[in-house]
Amino acid sequence: MQTITLAGGCFWCTEAIFKRLKGVKSVVSGYAGGDVENPTYQAVSSGTTGHAEAIQIKFDPKIIPLEKILDIFWHLINPTSLNKQGADIGTQYRSVIFYQNNDQKKIAEASRKKIEQSGLYTDPIVTKIEQFKNFYPAESYHQNYYERNYSQSYCQLIISPKIEKLIKQFGESVKN
User: Fold this and answer.
1) Catalytic residue check, 10
2) What is the SS3 assignment for 117-141?
3) In principle, which of 80, 99, 113, 166 could form an S-S bond with 123, CB 3.0–4.6 Å?
4) CA 6 to CA 28: how far, in whole Å?
C-alpha cells in the first residue's frame, strides 16, 4: 500500500471522486501543508493556517499506479487556477501534490510535464509539488460528505458532474 496526499479545491469533491477508483482502499478528507497543529474547518476556512483542504489516499499501486491517480487528478481539477477551484477562493483551495518520497516526487514531476505538454490547458499549470509534512483529518461531518448529503444542491450541482466526468473519461478505473 502507498499513500499520497492531494489538494485540489474542496475536499468534498476530490474525496467523492477518488474513493470510486479501483485499487483505492481509503480516502480521508483533511487539512495539509500548513503550520497550525490540529486545525479546525473554521480556522482553515479563514485562510490563516497555511493548510489546504486535501485528501489522503491509500492505494494499491499494483491495481492503480500513482501515475493513473495523478492523471485523473490533472483532468478533474483546474490546475491553472491559483488558490481557487470554481467558486471556492482562498489559499485553502490551492492545488498541491504532497509527495511522500523521492519516487513519488519524480512521478509527480513527470506527470506535470506530461500534462503541460499535452496541450489540454492553454494557461500555465500552477499546481505545486511539495514534500509532505503533515495531514490532519477533517471533522467527521466532512467525511463521506457526498454519500451522506447526496440530495443537497451542492452535491448535485458541483460534485455529481465531476463524478460523471470521471466515469466518462476514466470508466475503466472506476469500481463497479
Assistant:
1) yes
2) HHCCCCCCCCCEEEECCCEEECCHH
3) 80
4) 11
Query: Which residue matches cell numbers 460534485?
Result: 159
Compute the residue count for the chain. Answer: 176
Q: In what order do the strands lie in the sheet with 135-137?
A: 128-131, 95-99, 2-8, 52-59, 24-32, 135-137
For residue 110, the surrounding DSSP H or E stretch is helix 102-118
User: 101 Cβ partners below 8 Å, 6+ apart?
Assistant: none
Distances in Å between the Cα of 48 and the Cα atoms of 73, 98, 99, 134 are: 26, 20, 23, 16
Q: What is the grid cell recorded at 101?
A: 518520497
Return the SS3 of 4. Answer: strand
The DSSP 8-state label assigned to residue 159 in this structure reads: I
**Which residues lie closer than 8 Å to 11 by C-beta, 6 or more apart?**
29, 30, 53, 54, 55, 138, 142
Whether 85 and 10 have beta carbons less than 8 Å apart is answered as: yes
Rg (alpha carbons) of the chain, rounded to whole number: 15
Task: Give this prediction's pTM.
Answer: 0.95
Run means of pLDDT, 10 residues per run, the chain, 176 residues: 97 97 98 96 95 98 98 96 89 97 98 96 97 97 95 94 96 94
